[in-house]
Write a structure and sequence with these properties.
This protein is mostly helical and about 280 residues long. The chain contains 11 helices and no strands. The termini are close together. This is L-ascorbate peroxidase.
Length: about 280
Amino acid sequence: MELNSIPYIASWSSSSSCFYYSYSRCACRGTRDGKLVTKASAAGRKRAADSVCSQLSEQGTEDSISGPRSSWRIRRRDLASAILLPFLIPRVNISIAAEIYDASIIRSGVRSVLTKGKAAGVLRLVFHDAGTFEIGDGSGGMNGSIIYEVDRPENIGLNRSIKILRKAKEGIDNVQKVSWADLIAVAGAEAVALCGGPEIPVRLGRVDSSSADPSGKLPEETLDAASLKTLFSKKGFSAQELVVLSGAHTIGGKGFGSPVVFDNTYFKNLLRVPL
């Protein structure tokens, strides 16, 4: 796919403070008073997180994450923010009914089941849930409806990622209930971090949809640049943001560098493509 927007990548990735501020502000929408509210003390959160990991371990889960995360330059942080921006924005009208719970418990549960080899599938799951959003009427978006949509042609293979997160959800729910929407959003951020990207804060407060979103909201692989711009503009994306969002292909089996390393190989490949 050729996008006549390659110069936007360099200019967009350099405006780090502006873009990251925009991401952080948008990520607060739909949460209680724009804040991530936690109810437990630090010691209580640790006990709860340990409880989740223990329960998942008893279910036969062997994967875990430990050790310090790599320090990244701001430019790479911008790329991660752009990729996850639509995934991490709660719907504006859902916070009143939402349960408030501790993000650390959710992250611990996700880390207990997620490996680098599974990260790309989880990130794809996140986009396919969030990608149904339409800015015109506020429909679709990060609402967990993807669990009802796995039989659609565009969602082939996502059952595996849902199965992975279902195991995490079972353990987390034994400590405190978590919506599918919040779980998937946190999992997307953890997938990026696990592959060497930055840690991205995720605001909570999403309520799950009780039915599937309308079909035909996700971009088809055969769309040309003009059609992609039109489709993503309906989701609130500029052409620059669309190009940066494409950087999600840095992980996975698309042939851009290592499939389990979050880097800018995809960006470098685009620069080598003639306009």
